[in-house]
User: Fold these one by one.
Assistant:
Number 1:
Amino acid sequence: MSHAPVSTIAALATAPAAGAVGILRLSGPAALEVGRRLAPSVPAEPTPRHAYLASFVDAEGRTLDEGLFLYFRAPASFTGEEVVELQAHGGPRLLRLLLARVLEDERVRPARPGEFTRRAFLNGRMDLTRAEAVADLVAADSEAAVRAAAAGLSGVLAERVRALEAPLRDLHADVEGVLNFPDEAEGADADAGARVAALLTQAQGMLAEAARGRLVRQGARVALYGPVNAGKSTLFNRLVGEARALVDEEPGTTRDVLEARVEWEGLGLTLLDTAGLREAPGRVEALGIARTREALSAVDLAVLVLPPEASEAEAETWLREAGATAVLRVAGKCDVASEAAARESELRVSGRTGAGVEALRTAVLSRLWGSGAPTAVALVSERHADALRRACEALARAEAARHVSTLEVVSGEVGLALEALGEVSGTSVSEALLDAIFQRFCIGK
Ligand SMILES: Nc1nc2c(ncn2[C@@H]2O[C@H](COP(=O)(O)OP(=O)(O)OP(=O)(O)O)[C@@H](O)[C@H]2O)c(=O)[nH]1
Ligand SMILES: [Mg+2]
């Protein structure tokens, strides 16, 4: 990590739109001095974490606004550096004026996306999983995503990674000890095989949560599909709570894939209404059906809506349409279907009357989640999953090597697993990886 003189960075921490309050944030050695230039009434040695009511002035000393001045003394700040926050009124033009004033100082430059958080990480104020949880929290658009990110922020994932990392490091040290000082360390590798196996199981358990992490972070995608006129759009409108999709008795009403965002039990879901499937459609309808097939291959769950007249053979055909995607089968228009028409285990719903719709919601959630609440999940991201996967692979090789190969190989693989895990917590990361991670932050965070 670089040892160039640390610059002071500045950015607006609030959105560039009119709001009640707008925050200008400074971090770095010159933060206090530069911040005080805008708020000269603040004492030269302000009390840290004290809110000073101050006038913010332009270069000529004319008042631009009045607001709060907060000072956080290094290292007890978000970034670990000197930090000043000016809370002004939330006028975008006013805030740009204030920002331009602090940037006039040559020691100050605009912050890059995520740079405040990046500095917090580099200064040891938080590990990487927590820094990433900050970005998750800002991006969260469902209750489950907020809660999972908050859990990440409080260190749930970090703790679990540490619980893997620490014993793995011990194991590595033991094996290395036996290799380097065979006499002194004799026997320290006796249970190495069992320890590798236990750690592998643990790492695999965390990896298995990656899919749930993605569901929470991005929301699940669920498509309604089935033959034409089955009542998909009517059911879609019922689930969404408004008349989004056109409904008509003419088969082939829906042509494009329609999307709507809903939140069930705190979990964000994107529902898709699709063009009904049938043989020999018209030209435009055929394009719609192609889109249905495309959508089906990319969703987490497909809900097959069957009309009352569908035969079992037809149902089988429609089931196959979903390919590898999981399918939940429901019998539609149950208000007009005879009881006997549906299979016993089948969910019976009616978009028209709303019958069975609550049960459908529950069934969709339990198919996506199995048991447990979406809010209790640790947010394992794609990046974490990738690192965990490599750790698992190395551990699996170490386990295999235990029986057939030398201790050097075991040690090497355990070392690789450690390195991969270090990418999750941030104990071993490259600048390039940090760039990639912090790019998804917004400026001012
Ligand atoms: N009785 C009854 N009629 C329904 C129900 N749902 C839909 N309908 C009627 O069935 C016809 C087709 O409904 P849609 O919701 O457009 O069906 P769809 O599956 O989206 O049809 P396509 O888009 O053409 O594939 C309309 O006339 C609806 O009023 C229901 O639950 N009960
Ligand atoms: Mg439709």
Number 2:
Amino acid sequence: MNYDLNKPDPAKKPSIWRAMKKMWPLLVEEKKIIILALLAVIVNSVLNLSAPRLIAHAVDTFIVGHDYHGVLVYSGIILIIYLFGLLTSYTQIRLMGGVGQRVLYRLRNQIFNKLQSLPIAFFNQNRAGDLISRINNDTDKINQFFSQSLVQFFGNIFLMAGAAIFLLSLNIRLGAATLAPAVLLLFITLTLSPWVKRKNLASARSLGGMSSEIQESLNNFKVIIAFNRRDYFKKRFQGVNNENYSAAVGAGIANNTFTPIYGLASNLGQLIVLAYGIALISSGQFTIGLLIGFLSYANNFYNPLRQLAALWSSFQTALASWDRVHEILVMENNLPIIASSAVGNNGSVLEFKNVDFKYPDSKDVLRSVSFNLQKGKTYALVGPTGGGKTTTASLMARLYDPTTGEVLLDGRDIRSYSPEERARKIGFILQEPVMFTGTVRENILYGNERLAAYGDEQLEGVIRKAGLEKVLERFDQGLATKLTASGDAVSLGQKQLIAFMRAVLRDPELLILDEATANIDTVTEQLLEDILRNLPPSTTKVIIAHRLNTIQNADEIFFVNSGEVVRAGSMDHAMEMLLHDNRKS
Ligand SMILES: Nc1ncnc2c1ncn2[C@@H]1O[C@H](COP(=O)(O)OP(=O)(O)O)[C@@H](O)[C@H]1O
Ligand SMILES: [Mg+2]
């Protein structure tokens, strides 16, 4: 599966109608409220449409007949109609405002949950900043459309349709002439829409790009300062900021092209009414009252049309944003849980069977690799940097699936385990320890259901029993030591200690350490090795390390390079392979 959002699958390009259909589920729960809001809008339109008819009647009977009492009564009625109009339009705004916010809330939840369900490959290929922008900015554009535009959109169309009917029924020829500019307008709008949407998509994309740039420089600020690259990043930021500026200006121009054109059409319509209407009056086919009413209906037709111009842009913006949100929502995890295929357990905890693996757009990292790990033994993976050790370990924990071949955990295809089962069986200490804002305690217990409810004293007891109390002493305030965002308050070595405690306390069947002690002093490392040795005898350990004594203590050494994972036999042979390999390259 292609996870690169910047290279969308052309076959899956969402059309307007398909996008609208996909948007529908967001609205289903709001159906009642939307119907209520639409009713308010319809009542509002009917009220607005009845006023000109009453005015025309008042002019032709009361004013022409000098009946001022009648004029007063009619004015009163028209005032009440306008007041009701105000009430209905306020109701509509309130109802739809709520709908917009709830859609926003649900949509953000949906995207966030989707992101949580996606595999590592997705995050390898997309920049966090762009994803954040999709969650924050794009969903808000959709919210604006729902809260401000959707019902007005229908309201205006309804108002226009009503006005058009009145215009045509009052005088069909004059009516048709008045509406002619609108038909031209419809044609222009439909022609320009794809361009407007494209401009809005470019604008949303560049906003995502800017967000990525900010995120990257914030993540790497230490390197930026250490290497004095501030100017370079400033320049890069200026670049994306400029790009965003022009894209936003482009979208602004596109969104506003409609407004003057619609204004012109509206003026043309009124001009036609006046010129043609006066000609009709002078030939005795029309009355002044009707002309006033007619002008009013022309206004009732063209004013909403002018508003539609703005609404149409808002619709195009929302569609562009919806594309970006939808791209995430249709992503599927390419690591599905398959039906269990019970294979005879030959005593091995983990087995690779003809495993091939490559990252998207990379060369093969593993080629037809087969080996198996026996319960309770300790294995060392050695090999040159970039040789594929981390990749092999990642496949053991199913961070990725093999391109072809199988990985068996306890004799069963690893793909048939639920994520919970798998996480319970496997403890993985990543090469780059990941910390969360919070205390050492919270970081140690991350994802550990068994110990989560333990009090501090109880937990310290467990830690002592596992032999980890000396490790905990490396932290000033023990379990209560605070880690700031991204764990800057502790050293890299300390982070590795936390990751170590986190994995060991889960009591996994298979413990994988990926250069987990690379930043730890020799004495503490010795301590960790003792702790590993004292784990239950059934625990299988896979250790990726460079220090000789660590490798030496393993039951078996695997050499990982050039797509192969092979048994090295002895320590000496492994070193020979490593030296030979280094000389070769
Ligand atoms: N996320 C990734 N995307 C593409 N290629 C990768 C990725 N991670 C590692 N690689 C490539 O896979 C190869 C093996 O990397 P890795 O398993 O991390 O090596 P080691 O842990 O032995 O140093 C390297 O050539 C590296 O460039
Ligand atoms: Mg590595």
